[in-house]
Design brief:
single chain; 9 helices
Length: about 160
């Protein structure tokens, strides 16, 4: 019964939730295991076709891999999450937010996982689309760019103006 209410609450909460709140949870998710679990629970039952939310769901799974025990479980979770993100990119290749999600994962993934191939491509989509984006998404991207190490000074200057 408790599980039923959790699933129902998660579904209602997620459908009523707006992207700015999901973005905030994503930002906090990598800070602690508890935050990662909360973010994952928020998105774990999402099964609709919004590619942005599916990319965040994939990101939530990749973050879970950071806190998993055992190499096998870490690898399984990471592959599962990255696959969801890649599918979202494939389905919405020009979506700057989805590209930011993948870029943030690739930037913060250990080199040993060899998941860094699309950083330049994702930056280009983000930079090219930036001026046409809604203000809240621009602010979100700016916050990420300020702390990112993959954006050049020129790109930062262009995005942070």
């Amino acid at each position: 019964m408790k599980l039923f209410f959790h699933i129902l609450f998660s579904f209602v909460f997620l459908t009523a939730q707006e992207l700015p709140e999901i973005r905030e949870h994503y930002y906090d998710a990598s800070k602690t295991k508890q935050n990662a679990e909360q973010f994952h629970k928020l998105l774990s039952n999402y099964s609709k076709n919004n590619n942005i939310i599916l990319a965040y769901k994939g990101a939530s799974i990749t973050i879970q891999s950071k806190f998993a025990s055992g190499i096998k479980q870490k690898k399984q979770l990471f592959i599962e999450g990255a696959t969801l993100v890649e599918n979202a990119v494939k389905n919405s290749p020009e979506n700057a937010e989805i590209r930011l999600i993948r870029l943030s994962i690739q930037e913060n993934t250990p080199k040993i996982l060899k998941y860094k191939a699309n950083i330049e491509e994702d930056k280009k989509v983000i930079v090219d689309a930036f001026d046409k984006l809604p203000q809240d998404l621009k602010a979100y991207i700016k916050d990420y760019v300020k702390q990112s190490k993959v954006f050049t000074d020129k790109e930062k200057q262009q995005l942070l103006k």
